[in-house]
Amino acid sequence: MSVFGNKRLTKKLSTWSALLVAAPLVLAGCGSSSEDEGVVTFRFANSPTALSLVRIADELGYWDNAGVRPEYVGPATAVPAVQLLDQGAIDIATGMFNNDIDGKVKGFKFTAIASSMLDLPDMPHMAYFTRAGSDITKENLKAIEGKTIGLSGSNSCTDLVIKRYLQNNGVDLNKVNFLELKNELIAPAIERGEVDLGVFHPPLVGVLQSQPDKFTQAFTSFEDWGPLGGQAPYVASNAWLQKYPQAAREFVGIIAKTANWANAHPKESAEIAGKTTGYPVEQTTNWHYAPNALLDKASLQLWWDLVEAVGEPLPGSENLKPEDVATNAFNPYAKSADLLESQDQNTAIVTEEQNDGIFKTPLVDIEGLEK
């Protein structure tokens, strides 16, 4: 039976959807981070059906004896995560970098402190599926003209990447209908013939791959942005970073440790992805992550080009650069606060800390730093 025809799962997802809608009301009433017996908590904007290194680290027990620990709160939906960070409603979140650029233009006070996923041919950030037997293929992209693409959010990775890829391959975007749907509703819409091509992230990529009689993977995000793509860095409010800099350093270290573990154990990490998102563990897939959680300029800079090509850049965004938003200052595996030029400089797993504290950065004013 298709997972999308499973009534119990559908009911569960419907409940989650209701929670997502109500989430901003819950977030608005959250208090500030607190310390409990020396443990610093951080309120993390968490979606029940989204992958997260924070939740994978939880399953691995990495937070159990740490001096920093997550407190899961509802995800940012109606209000952007970077705005909630600025308002003090949450402490840490993750999301696509174009939202971070927009947030900086608007003057929100937050900083990107750790990297996230990258693209591999066999572990893409996104995959694009059609109904089995469709004439829409990588070799026949013009077939999408006059038809409908289902995606989970406008001005997001699900929207921008597919548009640029199609545009670069001669498709007239004005002849394509882009329909915004919740993630869990896109596959059923494909089955019913209401959507002709859907945009999916892990873990749903693996779920659809496990049903070749119903769905065909036409191509992936790797076709557009190659190995650089997918960066949705972990961002923290500057207020939290100023108050708990050592906790922030430990957070980044745990994210790095988790990313390295997930890359070395793709099967096990995919099973955890299924467990934490509610999908069948034998069907799910996970992302590939930037080693050591180190941030680089190239995989962040590509977002300016992407938004300029097919998005709606905010006036003033052209004056920003990656180092105005992100830093490696809190990463124990960094040799300086500077961003790497690219992930080509970050191919080896670092097991020993490369510094003994926090580097100075113009992005966050922390008293007492000498480096």
UniProtKB/TrEMBL annotation:
This is ABC transporter substrate-binding protein. Its main location: periplasm. The keyword Signal applies. It is found in: Periplasm. Keywords: Signal. It comes from Rhodococcus jostii. Residues 56-268 form the SsuA/THI5-like domain. The lineage of its organism: Bacteria, Bacillati, Actinomycetota, Actinomycetes, Mycobacteriales. Residues 1-28 form the signal peptide. Gene3D superfamilies: Periplasmic binding protein-like II. InterPro entries: SsuA/THI5. It comes from the Bacteria. SUPFAM superfamilies: Periplasmic binding protein-like II. Belongs to the bacterial solute-binding protein SsuA/TauA family.
